[in-house]
Specification:
By secondary structure, the protein is mostly beta strands. About 5% of the residues lie in helices and about 35% in strands. Strands 1-9-5-6 form a 4-stranded antiparallel beta sheet, with no helix packed on it. A 3-stranded antiparallel beta sheet has the order 2-8-7, with no helix packed on it. It has a 3-stranded antiparallel beta sheet with strand order 13-12-14, with no helix packed on it.
Amino acid sequence: MAYIGRNIEQFSNVEKLDNITFTNSAGPYNLLKSAVAFTPANAQSLLIEVDGVIQSSDSYTVSVSTITFGVSMASTSTMNSIIHLGVGLISIPADGTVNTAQLADNGITPIKFSTSGIASGNVIKVNDAGTAWELGTASSAEVYGFSKNSSGQLIITTTNQGADSISSATYATFDDTLFSASGFVFSISNGDLISTI
């Protein structure tokens, strides 16, 4: 029984491309829509029928607005139709086909992130190798106060990542102050103050 209903060309984001006339070669052949070069979303988004047989997307490759078949296409073969199933058609995208361009700006919000395995105070940071994202601990604001005791030794006073307070009287005794992220370790080497984070 024949299909009764809307033609496939009438669905949103489905486009009928110009049929290709084969020339006894695998290609490349131009992909056209109304005689204008057409670039499909990917090879999997094309529905091609040749001599009444739907072609697998494994049997051809697409490069920008051209298509190349895996075998020579005889000039006696007929392309019955070539349909582009465009962006927005309800279907499951093939693995590896969703790129940054398909994601709307500001389209990923915190509500979409999984909180599995995340603890309070965690942040997303680059790993030490600089190759991937990982969870880390948020760095608290830190005050480092520098002063000398009666023997002339260097004294470093910190807020201990917010756990300790520094009174205004103590703060007034500092010879110098550093405001920074927490995590600095200070040491003296050959009379120089070394700061490591």
